[in-house]
Write a structure and sequence with these properties.
mainly alpha, Cytochrome Bc1 Complex, Chain D, domain 2, two-stranded antiparallel ribbon, 16 helices, globular
């Protein structure tokens, strides 16, 4: 299984001239997060990749998994939310599948417990891939010779829904981040981080209090707590109590929870849609920060265009609401400290994306500064 993961990673195109990617996780760690009834093999991951890239899985042959989880964009999409069949727009930002195997639950609200369950739900969601019944999907794939052959080779069964989920999950378990400048710094290379990034790391663990939720764990160095928090995203636009009352009457099944999460304003209730617990109102999963530079825009609704916007959002303490997490407080970061913190976050991007890392950091910085300059001029003109 570990060899399958390494082979898959090395097949991803690195920056020209860069060394082979170095895995962050031990083989034992990868094994411990892989279910015994669905081990990763090269053939199974390849089949999952085929399904992931196949638009015919959707109702109108227009949407594949990689439409919203593009390898070029860190396995997400550079739009606030994603468009599905019939050009329908969902309510949530497409999360990256990088390192998804290490989450304790899937989706922004954790409504799926495993990758096997998560991987097939978008196919049946009305605003994503739009299929009405698993049988329709199986029938389409069973009419394609290469899928018939691949399912027989991997599972010794004809095409079926359960094995589809297993193959997709196996493929997702091969999408892992690799060594970044920060890791080389921890290994003793002081020059792996520049002066700004050194200051950013100190801020991350100190004044900026990022590590309260994005904690660092050496065996699993992903910068996430696998928990859910109300950070005040979109809170100023919501009557949470009214939404919660309506959702409590509506969220009666897994399919209905999936629909509410992506089609309706109930989406902003987050984890509450799953647990029906008042303390989970407006709470969303803490995303891992590995390769975060590649996955703009940010937050569950894609409302923050750049990492500078994200840090500024947390700097002001989020949007106040009755269910705001106790950790959300103004930070008092200066403009230069915001820059340092963002530069550090860039150092969590895998070395194999070094060229893209530099270009994306520059793009985000330019976007943020231009927008801020425009707002300044607009404000001056209004005075």
């Amino acid at each position: 299984m570990a060899l399958a993961v390494v082979a898959s990673l090395s097949a991803q195109p690195p920056t020209p001239g860069a060394p082979a990617p170095v895995l962050l996780f031990s083989a034992a760690t990868v094994r411990s997060f892989t279910p015994a009834d669905n081990p990763v093999t090269d053939a199974k991951a390849k089949l999952g990749d085929m399904i992931f890239d196949e638009k015919r899985v959707s109702a109108d042959n227009s949407i594949a998994c990689n439409t919203c989880h593009s390898p070029r964009n860190g396995f997400t999409t550079h739009t606030a939310t994603s468009r599905g069949v019939g050009d329908q727009l969902g309510k949530r930002n497409a999360p990256s599948i990088l390192n998804a195997m290490f989450y304790k639950s899937m989706f922004w609200d954790g409504r799926a417990e495993t990758l096997e369950e998560q991987s097939t739900l978008p196919i049946l969601n009305p605003v994503e891939m739009g299929q009405k019944d698993p049988k329709d999907v199986v029938a389409k794939l069973a009419a394609i010779p290469e899928f018939v052959d691949a399912f027989q080779q991997v599972f010794s069964h004809p095409v079926n829904w359960e094995d589809m989920g297993k193959a997709l999950a196996a493929f997702e378990r091969t999408r892992l981040s690799t060594q970044a400048p920060f890791d080389r710094f921890l290994q003793g290379d002081e020059k792996a981080l520049n002066a700004s990034q050194h200051r950013g790391w100190a801020l991350f663990t100190g004044k900026a209090r990022c590590a309260s939720c994005h904690s660092y764990d050496a065996p699993l160095p992903l910068f996430g707590d696998n928990r859910f928090h109300n950070t005040g995203v979109a809170a100023d636009k919501q009557d949470y109590n009214q939404l919660a009352a309506g959702a409590a009457r509506s969220a009666s099944s897994q399919a209905e929870k999936d629909r509410l999460a992506l089609e309706t304003d109930f989406s902003e209730l987050g984890r509450f849609l799953v647990t029906q617990k008042k303390e989970d109102i407006g709470a969303f999963k803490t995303p891992f920060l590995r390769d975060v530079l590649l996955t703009a825009p940010y937050m569950h609704d894609g409302s923050q265009e750049t990492l500078w916007d994200v840090v500024e959002f947390f700097n002001k303490g989020g949007e106040r609401n009755p269910f705001l997490d106790a950790e959300m407080k103004p930070l008092g970061l200066t403009d230069s400290e915001v820059d340092d913190l963002v530069n550090f976050l860039g150092a969590l991007t895998s070395d194999r994306f070094a060229e893209l890392r530099a270009a994306e950091l520059d793009r985000q910085r330019t976007t943020y500064l231009y927008r801020r300059a425009v707002l300044h001029e607009t404000h001056k003109g209004a005075q």
